[in-house]
Write a structure and sequence with these properties.
Elements lengths: L2 H5 L7 H13 L6 H16 L7 H13 L6 H13 L4 H10 L16
Helix pairs in contact: 2-3, 2-4, 3-5, 5-6
């Protein structure tokens, strides 16, 4: 399933459909399509959130494994997506802690530069 197809889904889908879409995205992921996979997972996470159900332990483990094996520690964009995925899929707190430790956010201070504080 591609990103355009995911974007055209209704806001509310069944828990089973949300599970299926996430699995399809993960199963179709390749190193060369990591960015597309992240985009798809982000859309699927929004659909999952609107099911108001906790995803299965198997799906959560599969997603966490994919995230950890594709980790990009120097990309705030990646870390922001992982934060949303961890929240919407109720992933392990250890994953959230790792994101928080590595995320500098939009207000990074440049070393040796002006901090903007008076």
């Amino acid at each position: 399933m591609n990103v355009a197809e995911l974007e055209n889904l209704p806001e509310s889908i069944s828990h089973q459909e949300a599970h299926s879409y996430c699995c399809q995205i993960l199963d179709g992921s390749e190193p060369s399509t990591q960015q597309l996979t992240l985009e798809g997972l982000l859309i699927a996470a929004d659909k999952q959130w609107h099911t108001y159900e906790v995803p299965s332990p198997d799906l959560r483990q599969k997603l966490a494994s994919w995230i950890l094996s594709n980790w990009i520690s120097d990309s705030d964009e990646f870390l922001e997506v992982v934060f949303v995925l961890a929240n919407n899929y109720a992933l392990e707190k250890l994953l959230l802690r790792r994101v928080i430790r590595q995320y500098d956010g939009p207000d990074k201070q440049k070393s040796g530069g002006d901090t903007g504080q008076s």
